[in-house]
Amino acid sequence: MKNLWRHTERSRALALTVVVLLLAWEGLVRLFGVRVFILPAPSKIIAGFFNAPGYLLLQSLDTLQTTMAGFVLAVIFGVAAAIGIVYSKFLDRTLYSLLVALNAVPKVALAPLFVIWLGTGAAPKIAIAMLIAIFPILIDMVLGLKSSDPDMLDMARVNQASRAKILWKIQFPNALPSLFAGMKVGVSFALVGTIVGEFVAGETGLGHVILVAQGSFDTPTVFVALALLCVLGVLLFKLIEVFERRLLSWHASQLERPAMELPPAG
């Protein structure tokens, strides 16, 4: 029981903070008589969700599916490109530089091009989500692959290990912590990319809900969509953490360390 109480301490503190902030928000909106279309009270936002829960959840599912598709493609292509960059000097000098330059271009500016090339269905939204999410995954994977112990690599080469075995047995496991760090950032970026795609070309999804609600000054629905996006972002981040704990149970970052006790004074 004591362990359960200790392990839920952070969740309880977060829940208490959220409740206090929502109560303060509700009280201030009522106190100053703020109009609903400017800043709705939390009670109005909750009521807005229950006005059409099925529709909003369906749009959330559409956004989630697009985000996951773009994120999975970003992981596949990001890891493959990172391996190519690490093992090929030509790709390191060309592809890496091109990706850095591409990352500097605002992705919203590229969104209309994807609509022209891929149409107005799910494809452009997935492409934009992948494009935004791939860069942190690629950068962290390259860093992880290059951070392998040189002595261990030399020992593997002395024992005539193939490049494939060195990659799979030494470099890839060593890069997993960096990969998961990039994936945590990338999955949030994929969600952002999906919303950008829904703004530009979407006829479904939470981004489309926000645009429609904005056009009719339905601010509570806008806040409902934003709250659902926050929930999706947290769930996706926690999902990556679950896989990280499963696959990296051996890593120092996943091992619980007892709190250090200070010696008594005097």
Give a topology summary.
Blueprint: H1 2-7, H2 9-32, H3 42-51, H4 53-87, H5 89-93, H6 95-103, H7 107-118, H8 122-146, H9 150-158, H10 163-201, H11 206-215, H12 219-247
Q: Counting H and I runs of at least 4 residues, what is the number of helices?
A: 12
For the CA atoms, what is the radius of gyration? Answer: 23 Å
CATH superfamily of the largest domain: MetI-like
Beta-strand content: under 5%
Terminal CA distance: 35 Å
How many structural domains in the coordinates? Answer: 2
The average pLDDT score comes to: 87
The CATH C-level name of the largest domain is Mainly Alpha
Uncertain spans, ≥5 residues at pLDDT below 50? 258-262
Structural class: mainly alpha
Determine the CATH topology of the largest domain: MetI-like fold
SS elements, strand count: 0
User: Helices and strands, in N-to-C order?
Assistant: HHHHHHHHHHHH
Helix content: over 70%
Biggest sheet features: none
Shape: globular
The name of the CATH architecture of the largest domain is Orthogonal Bundle
